[in-house]
Amino acid sequence: MLPVKLKRISATMATKSILRSGPVVCAVGNAYEILVPVNCDVLMSVTINGKSYCYHQNGIRRSDCVVQRFTVPMRELDKAGAYTLVYQKVIDRRAYSCLKGRAVSKTYSFRPLKPDREVCLYVMSDCHGIRGESENTCSFFGDNLDLLILNGDVSSSCETVEEALLPLDIAYAVTKGSVPCVITRGNHDLRGNFAQHLDELMPTADGKTYYEVCLGPLWLLVLDGGEDKDDAHREYGGTAAFHAMRQEETVFLEKLSSDPTAGFRNPDARYRFVVSHIPIHFCCRDDPDDNYPFDIENDIYSEWVKHLNGSVRPHLYIAGHLHREELWPVDSAQNARGLHCPTLIAGKPVRRGDRDCLGAAIKLTSDSAEIFFTDKRHCIIEKDTIKLKGENEK
Ligand SMILES: [Fe+2]
């Protein structure tokens, strides 16, 4: 992984704190990636129950990065219920010494999902830079929130480091580092000069942006469709290679589908959801604009739907991208590729008039998901319920 050079304004450094905001605990596989955006060169570690984890690459600790990141075993943090950041500003990192500032430590409490009680999730996508209102919307559950899902296009592009860090800024404002988050990429996140460094600023599974997440009673499959038009489209100017990524992702799905140890087969995972910015089962064939630019990857996306229907059998597909608040039943006309579960589209920016960004609160009970579409004032605009048992239950 190439290092990201901070484009900081040195004149303002003296007044800035070391932490840009605070830690965000992202769930990936059976681990948490604790991501900590920083304003300066720093040596940082995370301590959990007496064990220390530091950010290093083949033994060399990273100090000149925008985000400090620590992969910790999920069971260790779940058990400890707290973690401590320990850090020192690096003043001068030399060949034979390192001049540092004073050591600081800060402890954060943490609450994992529990299998024996109702689970409260909040899902939002497509904020497109609407920050304060999005933070209000995502705070619907207050201290009862168990998991925050930011499902892409939080910024409208990644031309600057500030745009690239906006998902982490919003996630920290909502969670204060105390509950897990899932953060995915949307197609707009992939544009702009800084997007080429995005993998250092977002959660990944060994560098991949598609992975499973095993959170006790909740199993998630994070999929990444990349951009929404063909790689050769003029808007990308030759910077896109998402077809190759989708081919690799197909291999990942094939392996996952046939893996006897995959998390979706665990009987404790009572809820199986797919999280993906792009609704891969939706085709824009009726869109008359520009020679149907969004009608792409029919073979690959049909293959993905086949794997979902065949082995994974999710209860719900959570998407964004369309700037709508909708729950599609299985027999919806939108479900062009025949996915065997309902689809939740959760993320609607409102720029004109009363600026807002709508999202969806989900309460999981033993056999159903109650879904509430809400706004920045926590008003419930619409609600619906889907049964989690039945056709897709194993
Ligand atoms: Fe999008």
Short descriptors:
single chain, 394 residues, alpha+beta, Purple Acid Phosphatase, chain A, domain 2, 2 domains, 7-stranded mixed beta sheet, 6-stranded mixed beta sheet, 32% strand, globular, binds fe (ii) ion
Could you provide a short overview of the structure?
With 394 residues, this protein is an alpha+beta fold. It is built from 5 helices and 23 strands. Helix 2 (131-138) packs parallel to helix 3 (161-175).
Please, could you describe this protein's structure?
The protein is an alpha+beta fold. It has 2 domains: 86 residues; 269 residues, Metallo-dependent phosphatases (Purple Acid Phosphatase, chain A, domain 2), CATH 3.60.21. Helices cover 16% and strands 32% of the residues. The protein is built from 5 helices and 23 strands. Strands 11, 12, 13, 20, 21, 22 and 23 form a 7-stranded mixed beta sheet that branches. Strands 14-15-16-17-19-18 form a 6-stranded mixed beta sheet, with no helix packed on it. β14 and β15 form a beta hairpin. α2 packs parallel to α3 and α4 packs parallel to α5. The two termini are 40 Å apart. Bound molecules: fe (ii) ion. The site of fe (ii) ion has 6 residues, from loops.
